[in-house]
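Review form for a predicted model. The reviewer records the input and the model, then writes brief findings.
Reviewer: anonymous (R2)
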Amino acid sequence: MAVPAPALAPELPPDWRARLRRGLLRTPDHRLEHCRAAGLAGESPAVRARLRASWPAALKVAAVLVPIVDRADSPALLMTLRASHLRRHAGQISFPGGQLEPGDADVAAAAVRETGEEIGVAASAIEPIGFLPDHVVQTGYRITPVVALLQPGLTLTPDGTEVAEVFELPLAIALAADRYRVARRSIRGVDVDSWELSFDQYTIWGATAGMLANLREIFTEQAA
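Model under review:
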């Protein structure tokens, strides 16, 4: 499956790579007090406390790759649509990733391995450049987003048991504030404001939308 060209999008500044590299964490930060409650648009202390009270005492460790196809004229994020038969998060849009396994050296290695397994990208084509803050999801996982640049011209081979579709979200759209909206959701009986982002026929929400919003935040903070 060849990577399709992305749709037209707003222009990115020429220093976008430098901004991201400056803004990303150089090493993961797993301190619970620095974790994001996944997907929330703004985290009031009261809401955060109520959600944290429902987290299990021992969070499971996972990682996702936030893969940017590094084309000179049209960089884009690779997104996956999860298969409809999966037990968790079926039919949702996500980044490739999964639980840390005993053979993984660290969370970056786990994200790279899972990307190869899910969509067929070789480790040699992936350049990790930094980390976003960890996100905790209500299923009990602490997820570390690993931001990486991917070589352009890749041919993808999605694993149909996990991935129904792979598509590209232009990076310029992911970094544009006016593409995001706030939706009201209920998480385990707690009403929260959460991020959503729409692109073509896709609606991105939950932890993935939170990670994209976080990426936009650190990019904006590094503006010259």
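Findings: The mean pLDDT is 88.
Further findings: The CA atoms of residues 74 and 184 lie 32 Å apart.
Recommendation: see findings above.
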